[in-house]
Amino acid sequence: ASGAIGTKSALDAPKDGYTWTAGAAQDLGTYQALGSVNTSIKDWHLFLNVANIQVIGVNPQRPWKNAKELLDDMKARPGQISVATAGVTSAAHAAMDQIVKATGVKYKEVSYDGGNPAVVATVAGEADLTTQLAVEQADMLRGKRLRALATVSDKPLELEGYGTIPPLSATIPGFNAPANYFGIFIPKGVPEDVVKTVERIWKDVMPKSEALRKYATSRGALYNPLYGEEAQKAVFPAVQANAWNLHASGKTKVAP
Description:
Elements: H1 4-12, E1 21-24, H2 25-28, H3 31-34, E2 44-52, E3 55-58, H4 67-76, E4 82-85, H5 91-103, E5 108-111, H6 115-124, E6 129-130, H7 134-142, E7 147-151, E8 157-159, E9 163-165, E10 180-187, H8 192-204, H9 210-218, E11 222-227, H10 228-248
Parallel strand pairs: 4-5, 4-6
Antiparallel strand pairs: 1-10, 2-10, 2-11, 3-6, 3-7, 8-9
Helix pairs in contact: 5-10
């Protein structure tokens, strides 16, 4: 359900400030269009910590050495190359929607119960590749159990202990994808002191935490604590892109 069940539980819980949810803001913003949870991004106080980036990570037994070889093969064998994802609103699915939109390739999606199971399945050879987040692939990339072909972005990624992963824009000129922000989400309507307390933490503590910053960068994530209106503005491009890509592929019940 890509977080929809947990999100609905938090939304339906007593508004006492003790039930929060967490995950990808672009998912939170598309449940309404998918018909899974009647909520929008504006119904929540967003406390963001990292912007994550998707990576094309392939099983090392597969032949492709770069993104061009993979895309050429996808065009030559439409619908035959399998991509492991965490489901219809997952980061990997959103990444493939962006790639399909830019190139017109067709692929076979294999859905798993989460990002990590999708990565493990790719390592095991159940799927040819995954486009899940760098944070989910980092250890397998460092251990040479996966091979990174490109970031699903217009920016390269320097992954500690692995090296530089080139951007997909080097293969597809003009390609870009909005930042995929993750964080904690608290439903509006909770006591004001709850919101003010978490805002104070995000303002005074989070930006100074070298432990959290180091953890994020070691996993291939951009550490960028945001809250309030700034957080709403930061997540909206990814929400828009995700919602309209899902709509274009016939997966929504309501037009975004």
